[in-house]
Amino acid sequence: MHRFRRFRACTQGVSAVEFALIAPIFLMLVFGIITYGGYLAVMYGVQQLTAAAARSSIAGLSDTERSNLATTYVNSNVNSYPLLAASNVTVNAAASPSNANVFVVTVNYNASGLFIYSLPKFVPTPPTTVVSSAAIPRGGF
To answer: Dihedral of CA 110/116/118/122: which sign?
Structure first.
């Protein structure tokens, strides 16, 4: 009985036990913030690039000219977003299949080369493809 009381009174390993209980939760939180923060930054960049490309396509007189304007805008401005690489961007700009009076710009980004996919897998990783679309109605309404 004396050994049991002495064992219960000993506090030498308390901080190690507390660290072992809290460390996994803390690491999940930190890596989750880094992973999803980086992914949201990429999503925001792709979304802003798509919206601006759609706005720039308004100046075109034909669908071909609009498509060229949107593609040129994306290719010339993608490097202004620090987490985006121009080689991973594809642009599709065409009239909407469901409504001929709407022009749709879609930007696809392959995010598989981002640093967030090389981090330890404490949290589930987001999808590797980011897709954003912006629709611009034609004038004359």
So the answer is: negative
Confidence of residue 140 (pLDDT cuts 50, 70, 90): low
CA dist list (Å): 54 to 48, 50, 58, 67, 121: 10, 6, 7, 9, 36
Give the tens place of pLDDT for each residue, 85-117. 999 999 999 999 898 889 999 999 999 988 888
DSSP secondary structure letter of residue 112: T
Instruction: Look up the pTM and report it.
Output: 0.80
Rounded CA-CA distance 76/91 in Å is 12
Nearest CA to 96 out of 134, 130, 132, 59 is that of 134
